[in-house]
Specification:
single chain; 207 residues; alpha+beta; Jelly Rolls; 6-stranded antiparallel sheet; globular
Length: 207
């Protein structure tokens, strides 16, 4: 019994130190706002809806920054002009069974593109700001954000949105590419109880 408990405890500790896995990711290659504004995740499970961008949504050259291994630069989602100010787009994914959730995305803007942007999470009652970002005006940059609000939730489908603002001309653009959520698998309650038993057995052996 002690051997079995020790083996289970070792397995649980190993799982706790495992590398993060992709929960949901969108490379945005092949998107066409004129045809469809809701796209399924290209890895993992989830949906991205950019209908909130309205007529400002378009497509420009993408990047491999933040892309999953083997993915091409392809296309990126772009919001163009001052009409994009105070618009938003969102994605939803299944958060049950995941913890230590991280959001990453590649972004860049033109000199007059939206520069006062933010990431928000739905906390069950309201949208909660997670971070603000300006986007680099000369090159792609990768933004990484810890999704504390979702980690603190009880699971189920999680919602995240990007809110845009600060564009100063009709041609100003803000691009997004390679949007991804990663996390580690949360131990099942039964596994945590077993880990506790292993600790008790270890203490008893030392007495």
């Amino acid at each position: 019994m002690r051997v079995a408990l020790a083996a289970c405890a070792a397995a649980l500790f190993a799982a706790a130190g495992a590398a993060a896995s992709v929960v949901a990711a969108w490379n945005l290659n092949g998107i066409d706002p004129a045809q469809n504004t809701v796209v399924d995740a290209t890895a993992g499970f989830g949906t991205l809806d950019f209908s909130g961008l309205g007529a400002t949504a378009g497509v420009l050259q993408g990047t491999t920054l933040g892309a999953l291994p083997g993915e091409l630069a392809g296309e990126s989602l772009v919001a163009v002009g001052t009409l994009a100010n105070q618009t938003s787009f969102r994605f939803d994914f299944e958060a049950t069974g995941w913890e230590n959730l991280m959001l990453s995305f590649a972004t860049r803007r033109s000199a007059t593109g939206a520069s006062m942007n933010r990431v928000e999470c739905w906390n069950g009652l309201a949208w909660e700001t997670v971070t603000s970002f300006a986007s680099n005006a000369s090159a792609w940059e990768l933004v990484t954000v810890k999704l504390f609000a979702i980690d603190a939730s009880t699971g189920g489908y999680a919602s995240v949105r990007f809110v845009l603002d600060g564009a100063t001309s009709s041609s100003g653009s803000l691009r997004f590419d390679n949007i991804a959520v990663t996390g580690t698998a949360a131990p099942a309650p039964g596994a945590l109880a077993l880990l506790g038993l292993a600790g008790i057995a270890s203490r008893r052996r030392r007495r």
